[in-house]
Amino acid sequence: MKEDTKISNYCKFDSQLLTLFTSSLYIAGLVASFFASSVTRYVGRRLSTLAGGAAFLASSALGGAASNVAMLIFGRALLGIGVGFANQSVPLYISEMAPPHQQGFFNNGFELCLGIGVLFANLIYYGTKKIEGGWGWRISLAMAAVPASILTPGVFFLPETPDSMIQKSSNIEKARSMLQRIRGTDDVQAERDDLVKASSISKTVHHPFRNIIQRKYRPQLVMSIAIPFFQQVTGIDVISFYAPVLFRTIGLGESASLLSAVTTGVVGAVSTFICMLLVDKLG
To answer: Are 154 and 93 in contact (CB under 8 A)?
Structure first.
């Protein structure tokens, strides 16, 4: 870091190839999300999750066996496709299966698992970086197959949600039986009626994107755009993806930079856990 004080540390690490590798996930995820929403709605949450899991498995295999940069970027794009599908279907599945008064808790549990995953990824990278021969990165990329191998076959053991049953086949009695099973009580008439009413109303909406821009829905539209937009503008994803590089620019060694990235993962996981405990109580 002291070799040339005239070189900006930012510009020194301004790698367009690294940017392309990182951004390919977001680009693929953005494109996939447009298809994932229709698949999740018309085919079901389980099959959409299965598609995401399959993309994760393919990505890990391609990344671990990559022989050139193109394979790495393509594998990263497959990872983005998996994120596009799983990030829609899994939270929706959790929301529909969770008790109404605990939906915030369970949805934040999803975020907590993501945070824990990031933490473990940083720990794995920190450990594999010490492997001699410079091939430890292959283990880091291939290890993504571990959670994917749990998610993908696990889908076959999960029931479809009552909401999806009503939307796809209007099988109200089957949906009621599923509600009784997951709620642990026979008194589900009120919730069943709410689901049937919501499904009936949704089928009368032929142009949802045209409706959402109406004046009466403008506050919800603004907030749904502003919250994720400002979350990105804060730079949190830059810190997450480029943490080791950023820490090196302030003078930390390679090992210390990787360990510092682990620290940010710990902070993120702890913060999410606290939010999970408070969201249903405080709103």
So the answer is: no
Distance CA 1, CA 268 (A): 28
SS3 state of residue 186: coil
What are the two backbone dihedrals, phi and then psi, of residue 160, each rounded to the nearest 5 degrees? -75, 155
Q: Taking the CA atoms of the chain, what radius of gyration do you get in angstroms?
A: 22
Residue 216, pLDDT score: 84
End-to-end CA distance of the chain, in Å? 47
Instruction: Specify the residue for token string 């790495």.
Output: 72
| Contact present, 184 and 97 (Cβ < 8 Å) | no
- Spatial distance between the Cα atoms of 160 and 44, rounded to a whole number of angstroms: 7
Helix (H) or strand (E) holding 107: helix 103-128
Tell me the C-alpha to C-alpha distance, in Å, between residue 193 and each of 163, 173, 189, 197, 204. Answer: 11, 11, 6, 6, 17
Q: Is 184 helix (H, G, I), strand (E, B) or coil?
A: coil
Contact 22, 51 (CB under 8 A): no
* Distance of alpha carbon 57 from alpha carbon 71, whole angstroms: 15
CA distance 133 to 118: 25
- Which pair of structure tokens corresponds to residue 79? 């990872």
Both tokens assigned to 180: 């009784």
| pTM, to two decimals | 0.75
Kindly report each contact of residues 185-192 with a partner whose C-beta sits within 8 Å and lies 24 or more positions away, as own/partner. Answer: 191/100, 192/162
Token pair for 93: 């599945």
Q: What is the pLDDT of residues 259-272, one digit of tens each?
A: 677 777 788 788 88
Distance from C-alpha of 26 to C-alpha of 100, rounded to nearest angstrom: 32
Helix (H) or strand (E) holding 34: helix 16-42
Residue carrying structure tokens 């959409």: 48
